Amino acid sequence: MTVKFGLLGAGRIGKVHARAIRSDANAELVAVADAIPAAAESLARDYGCDIRTIDQIEQSSDIDAVVICTPTDTHADLIERFARAGKAVFCEKPVDLSVQRVQDCLKVVKDTGATLMVGFNRRFDPDFMAVKAAIDEGHIGDVEMVTISSRDPGAPPADYIKRSGGIFRDMTIHDFDMARWLLGEEPETVVAQASVLTDPEIGTLGDFDSVNVILRTASGRQAVITNSRRATYGYDQRIEVLGSKGAVSAENMREANIEVATEQGFTRPPLLNFFMTRYIAAYANEIAGFIRAVNSKGVTPTTGEDGLQALALADAALKSVQEGRAVKVSEILG
Amino acid sequence: MTVKFGLLGAGRIGKVHARAIRSDANAELVAVADAIPAAAESLARDYGCDIRTIDQIEQSSDIDAVVICTPTDTHADLIERFARAGKAVFCEKPVDLSVQRVQDCLKVVKDTGATLMVGFNRRFDPDFMAVKAAIDEGHIGDVEMVTISSRDPGAPPADYIKRSGGIFRDMTIHDFDMARWLLGEEPETVVAQASVLTDPEIGTLGDFDSVNVILRTASGRQAVITNSRRATYGYDQRIEVLGSKGAVSAENMREANIEVATEQGFTRPPLLNFFMTRYIAAYANEIAGFIRAVNSKGVTPTTGEDGLQALALADAALKSVQEGRAVKVSEILG
Amino acid sequence: MTVKFGLLGAGRIGKVHARAIRSDANAELVAVADAIPAAAESLARDYGCDIRTIDQIEQSSDIDAVVICTPTDTHADLIERFARAGKAVFCEKPVDLSVQRVQDCLKVVKDTGATLMVGFNRRFDPDFMAVKAAIDEGHIGDVEMVTISSRDPGAPPADYIKRSGGIFRDMTIHDFDMARWLLGEEPETVVAQASVLTDPEIGTLGDFDSVNVILRTASGRQAVITNSRRATYGYDQRIEVLGSKGAVSAENMREANIEVATEQGFTRPPLLNFFMTRYIAAYANEIAGFIRAVNSKGVTPTTGEDGLQALALADAALKSVQEGRAVKVSEILG
Amino acid sequence: MTVKFGLLGAGRIGKVHARAIRSDANAELVAVADAIPAAAESLARDYGCDIRTIDQIEQSSDIDAVVICTPTDTHADLIERFARAGKAVFCEKPVDLSVQRVQDCLKVVKDTGATLMVGFNRRFDPDFMAVKAAIDEGHIGDVEMVTISSRDPGAPPADYIKRSGGIFRDMTIHDFDMARWLLGEEPETVVAQASVLTDPEIGTLGDFDSVNVILRTASGRQAVITNSRRATYGYDQRIEVLGSKGAVSAENMREANIEVATEQGFTRPPLLNFFMTRYIAAYANEIAGFIRAVNSKGVTPTTGEDGLQALALADAALKSVQEGRAVKVSEILG
């Protein structure tokens, strides 16, 4: 069955989802809404869909599901509203920057019985899925240690950082989700260190650009996350999992798989340096997973609970930095 | 301007081109023709186009260009016919298995002034394009030696081999084209060796499955091509170019870029093992290049002459094997 | 000038140093001492040197320098004794398991003006030296993050673990030294997490087998160390340094640089799985560095202070695990 | 039993063998002879051996074996002379540049029953041995295609080229030996192409600097050899073998296994660029193999026959270039 979509937000991530919907044989983009008319018009023209207001989409009987790509501070309200309207909801992470607000929102979702998927695109990357499959097929035995290196090519503008909730909630949150997924057991304790090394303005805004985090589960499994807002060589996204019988890792992606050899050495091109290019396949797989869940009335591959847990880890990491101690996730989730 | 396409042939390569046309913003697939009605119907349904006969397509004023994906022995006739009908023509290699027939056909194309592109998909592979760009930008100095390793995962069925014109005209022809492109100078002399190692039936059919060829240009540049019809580890497609200042190479593609480490060692997955998956981006770029040429009334990125030269090299290689000597390309082209 | 050596301890690490001394044109192995006569005899026969007691070596006027490879609990006493005897001293890490005892010992060394080198073999590995050179030559700009993955092929016997001082003082200590060397700034704060995952007996002995540590310097540079006592695929020793202009990393070493490709994928051999094989070049370079320092009466490339600082980081890491908080190195060094 | 050696020739390859003999527990270097007194003195001093004349070594009862490192035109005479004197003989390739002379010399060796090893160092390289072992253990099934890329960092001086016998007899001869070893079946037919691309002076001397050769055995197995006298990125030495069940390859060696990542890309150092450094382990293994053969009175791992066959392939390749045809090895060996 074709799932009919309304898209809320026509910005760059909105376009990524519009493209994913168009290329999926089981989906149709019916309408887009955006506060900026020109943005909505441009997207509607490129992807051949209607322009409607959010109110109209809420009341559209020809729309089954919405994709929320609006600013973060609108997410929780929109989730609640469309859950109540009986639409399936796909929302970009995070649900909200406040754990309490997320918990309240998820309660509404639960009460309405709505289908909610919170987007953690990396779980749908083909290479990372192959890593997970190798674990699930038993190739490395029991998981012991997860190592995640995640570095952006460069820091976002100050304006973005101000509203981002800080590096742990904005950037590391993806790695917290990956860690939970790969550990196969909920982290219990968090320690972290944070610095400002790439740009003093980030410090002025009260944020950090260079952080390391260690997560520990009840049984002693651990995950290490290392983040920087700057990697001159591109968008650096690596994972590695050590188990009792071996290890599995995923490598970075480059624009071209070539090598030039000269007197100076052997040089391969820098990494793909934009998250949309790097994760283009992941975004398509993610929407496909949502469509399957809607069609089968099943569980979405990533859930509101995943969004909550990742946010709680972010809050715990920040608290660990602020208080110089190991923080229990239970302190955050109360 | 949108180029409106008729597709001749709804087989597997026809579908590849249909998909490329659909995903190109400057192209529209108007109609498909196929001798087998079910094949035409299936493709028309999947890609939302009309079903017409070849005659109808020839006379359709709403069709600017055709893509010929019919059996090889129909190519030359169809090229001539659509050239005369004023359509731009994209034809899968080869134009014909006979050098004389190709020469006659190209004369018709020339006389009609038609746009003709002969498909050599590998030139449009992003990695191979990056190799060519590295050469053109001077990173390796003057080209001296080209090395091409090209191995299929497994031999095609006997029926296919019978009609294929033999390994040099069917498989090595792609490598001949790559060699010409990378050498930057026309090969003058060909020596080759050929064996049957993977399946005696191939020998019974008068063909080979394992060949090596050396090409030499007038100035002494050389290219080595090594082919096998069988590589258990996947579709093996590597190129390497040595120049006066260095070398550049392109690596194979895998399904996933992961590595599993155990007591037995470090293992990465086999190669992508199907040419359509391996060259999916190349096919899209190829059609895009054709569309640009049609729109600009310019030269196509690969031409009928390219088809002729590659075929002549194939004939020279076969003659070299048969006569145990170095063969000049001029002996073939007369 | 040839430096004449006495070797204290004829065990496996003693043999490594004997070989390094023999292969160095500026060194001569004069005598060996070992509590087990058979061990001393075997080494003396293989390397063509005398057998003497420790007392005799202390009084030998034909010996300039000693290499201490005896059990850890004898190191500090022997260092003091030979420093007082006017010999140059090379001692395997650690000087002692007690920070206080190390501090007392280093005071004696200082008072006698003796030359003391504490062995941290990894700094002399050619690949790691190339990493350091890349940093020092400015290729990656200012150092920001150091990542060290260090995993043993398997845990040592329980008997060894009992006397080892625990994983931080026995195994991670090498990584603490590498981190200090690569950070280029003294770590100030330590957080760590530790688990028992590979063998419950290790837990029974009060030790851990799986640890992660984050170090932070005053200016905010950070190092992450990840350790496991078990890696089925060999002796895993990787370093990576991120700087303001780029990153540099060193790869593992294998027995053979080959790859076998089959239907199952592409497989390279496991890693070299014994520290003496992995670091054979490092041990030779290390002794050569000591010889140069003795001959030039200069500073040794690694010092007693290096041994002290690495031990303090180990103690801080253990305290961090025990107390669930960030620990300052100054708390340890007092 | 310790094999006592006389070394004929104290040049750079003589030193390589002197070092290999010294580091072998089963060998002793007794004396060196060289026409240049200073060369003999220097080597004798460095390796602690006598200086004798060739006549004296021939008559020395305390010498079991000789290593011939004198100029090529003396090899055959010296082999015959020392074979008659009852010494075991290790001779650097080639025995002679004339097939007839080699055949005559091998007849003398056969008649005297002497032990003769002709040095083909590459067979003793640990990585290439691992490739051979993978084949012998059946990992790739039946051998079908061997691909050898062998490029020198730069051409030797004109004086050397004049006396070298040409690129096929001087450089490719190593690859011919490797091809025979890996094919596991004697090549029957040779085709080759040759050019002068790196330096016109090489052409003036009647030689080539860029050659490609295809070898074919009776059963159809093939080997491709690609050679250049210039590779700016170092000493390029790769082999790859395709079999019915898979493939195995060996990679190049670098000075350091590091990678620097910057905005410009990911760069690894150039290759080791000197054959003595690249093959240091091979030379040691080679002499060890000779010593084992002498001690066991067994067959040497490489023989005079190996030298003859490789030379015949070189002559066949040259004839193929000169006559523009496939040449049978039987035409050369008569």
Automatic annotation (TrEMBL), chains A, B, C, D:
Keyword field contains Oxidoreductase: yes
One Gene Ontology molecular-function label: inositol 2-dehydrogenase (NAD+) activity
GFO/IDH/MocA-like oxidoreductase domain boundaries: 128-248
Ranges where the Gfo/Idh/MocA-like oxidoreductase N-terminal domain occurs: 4-120
UniProtKB keywords: Oxidoreductase
Top EC class, one word: oxidoreductase
Keyword field contains Iron: no
Entry's EC annotation: 1.1.1.18
Family of this protein: Belongs to the Gfo/Idh/MocA family.
PANTHER family (alphabetical): BINDING ROSSMANN FOLD OXIDOREDUCTASE, PUTATIVE (AFU_ORTHOLOGUE AFUA_2G10240)-RELATED, NAD(P)-BINDING ROSSMANN-FOLD SUPERFAMILY PROTEIN-RELATED
Record's protein name: Inositol 2-dehydrogenase
